[in-house]
Design goal:
It is a single chain. The protein has 151 residues and is an alpha+beta fold. The protein has a single domain, classed as Mago nashi protein, CATH 3.30.1560. The chain has five helices and seven strands. Strands 1, 2, 3, 4, 5, 6 and 7 form a seven-stranded antiparallel sheet that branches. Strand 3 and strand 4 form a beta hairpin. Helix 3 crosses helix 4 and helix 4 packs antiparallel against helix 5. The longest helix has 12 residues. The chain is globular.
Length: 151
Amino acid sequence: MINACGGSKDLASNTGDNYSSLTQEKRDMINNIQMLEYTANSRGSHILVRITEKFINYKLNRNDELIAISNTEKNWNDLMLLMADLDVKTIPSLEAPSKAHQYDGAAHATFSIYVQKDEEGLQTPTFDAGNPHKAIAPIIDKMMSLIPSKN
C-alpha cells in the first residue's frame, strides 16, 4: 500500500506473525494512520512530538524550533502494532485516570492520531502528563523513547 506521503506501508513484510494475526479491520486502520501526536504543556514546559512513517518531529521547549529526525521502519511498525491494540474510535472518550492538570498539579497532555480520511484527526481529552489512560500509555511511552532526552 502507498500512503499519502508516497511511502510504502506494508507492515506484513516487517513484523511477521504479529501483523498476520491482526484482523483485516485492524490492518486497514493501521495502514491509514498518517501521524501520531503527543503534546504536554504547563506554565514552564512544553513538549510536542509528531511521528510519521518517515520522520520524528519534536520540540522540548516552547521557544525552540521544531526538530526533525528520520524515523526508522522498525520504529513505525512497532508503533503501528501498539496502535492495533487500541480501538481508535474510543480515543475522543478516553477518560483521564487523574485530574491534577485541572488545578496546575500536572502538565496537561493530549494524544492525537491523523488518518487519511480524517484530516482533523482524533484527539483524547486532556490528561495529566505522565499518567495517560492505560489504553494509550504504551504508545506514548514508545513515542517518548524515540526522542533525545532533555539532558
